[in-house]
Design brief:
Elements: H1 12-23, H2 26-38, H3 45-53
Length: 68
């Protein structure tokens, strides 16, 4: 160990979360279940390809009307 090395810093928030997870170990499993409900989705690649092909190009200035 280096003589000028400081102990690793752990913020109050990190210490709180570590203590919370150690007191309630089911929290992490609940987080993973929640994530799977919201984010871990199967992607329909054929539909995504159709969405990309049907995209209409945006005009350079979107607020300009056709007559002006």
């Amino acid at each position: 160990m280096h003589i000028f090395r400081r102990p690793d810093y752990r913020s109050d928030a990190t210490q709180f979360l570590d203590q919370l997870k150690s007191n309630y170990p089911a929290i992490e499993q609940g987080q993973q279940v929640g994530r799977s409900l919201l984010w871990d989705k199967a992607i329909d690649r054929l539909a995504l390809l159709g969405f990309r092909k049907s995209k209409v190009a945006q005009k350079p200035y979107v607020y300009q009307t056709e007559g002006h």
